[in-house]
Known about the structure:
Bound molecules: zinc ion
Strand content: 25-35%
Amino acid sequence: MLGSVLYVAAHPDDENTRLITYFSKDKLYRTGYLSLTRGDGGQNLIGNEQGIELGLIRTQELLSARRMDGGEQFFTRAYDFGFSKNPGETFTKWDREKILSDVVWVIRKFQPDVIITRFPVTGEGGHGHHTASAILANEAFTAAADPNRFPEQFQYGVKPWQAKRILWNTFNFGATNTINDDQFKFDVGGYNPLLGKSYGEIAAESRSQHKSQGFGVPASRGVAMEYFKTTGGDAPVNDIMDGVGLDWKKVPGGEKISKLIDGIVASFDLLHPEKSVSGLVKLYHAISSLPEGYWKTQKLKETQQLIEQCSGLFLDATASTQFAVQTDSIRVNFSFNNRLGANAIIKKITVNGFDSVLNQPLDKNKNVNFIKTFLVPQTKEVTQPYWLENKMEQGYFNVSNQLKIGQPDVDAAYTVDITLNIEGQDFSFAKPVRYRFTDPVRGEVYQPLPVLPAVIFGDIASFYLKNNPDGVIDASVIANCAAATLVNETSDNSASKDTLSLPFKYNLKKGNTVHFPYTIANLENKTYRLRSADEFKTGKILKTIHYDHIPAITYFKEAVTTIKELELKTYGKKVGYIVGAGDKIPEALEQMGYEVTILGNKELSRNNIQQFDAIIAGVRAYNTDEWLNNHYDALMKYVNDGGNLIVQYNTSTQIGPIRAKIGPYSFDITRTRVTDENAIVKILKPDHPVLNFPNKITSDDFKGWVQERSIYHAANWDKNFETIFSMNDPGENPDEGSLIISKYGKGYFTYTGLVFYRELPAGVPGAYRLLANLIALNKKKAF
Length: 783
Ligand SMILES: [Zn+2]
């Protein structure tokens, strides 16, 4: 099968996994999904990661999905900066020409016969990114074929490429139905007896990988029609591939290849695939002799993979340590097994520029194990996702290496090349060196093996508020390497005023951490860099993200922090925090000078909650914590007795149904949101205490907000609620549901969709001041 299809949309989870599964597993097309963004701007259902960290998680979820449905994954440099209501708004942040160039680049490399967009250019896709993805795909359909567009790409080995056609895969999303029976359509709901699964079953497994989005879906069986509208090229009549050559006839000299394949297929023995190996090696020879070209390269790769699989070869290279550390060494365990006894000799292995000549026959089902130890030199690059190497712009990542564009993931730090002679032909198998361990619960686990510097810094916040008189920066340095003795006798000579130099005189052993607390009150309001005094570069902080459904994620951030002094007054000291889906508000509250107590089910039962000046529910707490129902009466009593309960946004969807009662009076939660972070905020009740104590809130406090203003607004609120603000996106009706407050007994209850969880970590002063006022509402303590 020599055909290919590229699906294009904007986010992880936009793609039609059932269609991708059908193309890849039934039609055997080379099938790709180009997601313009990594989904950085969404809400995270499983943890507190936001922004680039959420993008890292959703990148891995998409790769996990592709491992199931058989598609390949690509991205552009576009950053998912959050919801936008139209493509015009989207293109003010994405560099339109840059992102178009990336789509063109992926098309020129992948050379799809057919391009399919999830969304139309006309806006029925809703989200501005969706419409923008269709606009760019349709522009790229023409531009990729035009030698005058993006000619700078040609030096990197691509050529102009004209896909046969581009179609929009119309949809019925309930509220919006763009399907029409006149449209070109076909059934993708078949059953694959070789795999023992329906395409709707495989697609559900694939889609359910989007766990951070809560997109678990049921498997489907039976007829499933997909509908299409042609937006470029000639419309298909009988088949989506009409007019596309799909066999070897399209490759000069390719006809003899078809005959060879027919022979191998005809004699294939399901129980003895190894009997096909010599035929496959002959096929490999024959394809090798064809003139250079896209399908030659692709089919050589696929044939080699078939040879490996039909031989039952096991080729494995693992490290028993989690990281490779600069200036330290790693032990790599090689393990090979020729499980079906193909005629194979292992000739040599090459890793890290080091050749090991072996020339050893591989006997049937006999383990060949050996260990090599390598030095990880100081010059070995630390492992950083390539799109995070440079400082990013608001709407896109800066990637300097053209060859990386489109690539979904970071390259393995170490790859071993194994040269095997199989049936007289040399093959080179490239395998990543991975970290392998056995978890008592999960069993054998493989993880990537990233490279670390010999010295890293403990995590610090990107900024600290000088407002907390007791604030301390807990700077620390961690030794990863036994050989690295960190001794510095002259601690001050490299310290500039803007450097928090760590004046250590310690002989650090591997695993040692030394703490250097800095009192924030003693620092100036400026940006400081952490570096150990014998290193003139800014230090690195290692960040790791672990979830069981995806490989471990590591990346580095610069050890830089800024001291800020906000015009911020607080009133009250003790805050109880009920964690919901996860957010970084508790850290922010501590920076403001509050004492924060995390309140779970147990703590709410045991704790004397009257002690708290305010209790704040984290984002989606009432979606995630069913046990909050047990505490409804106690929380209402707390409010009635003079407490102050502040509930941040919850959703009211099938993903996040409300599981517990929330307030003393009724209100509904809607999907109304204000996504323009500069939307004008009209103050409705200038005399309300929330706008006056202890901070005077004015329109200035709504300057410099990031991503959006507010989500999941309240509606249909009881007459006891007061509204404070009115705001709306351009062209929409004013809405007052972003912040509703009611007095109840001696205390206060607040529901708010204002995105404090985005604004506080971004250091937006107005958000801090407003939250301080919400916490002060009950003025519980006497003056
Ligand atoms: Zn989307």
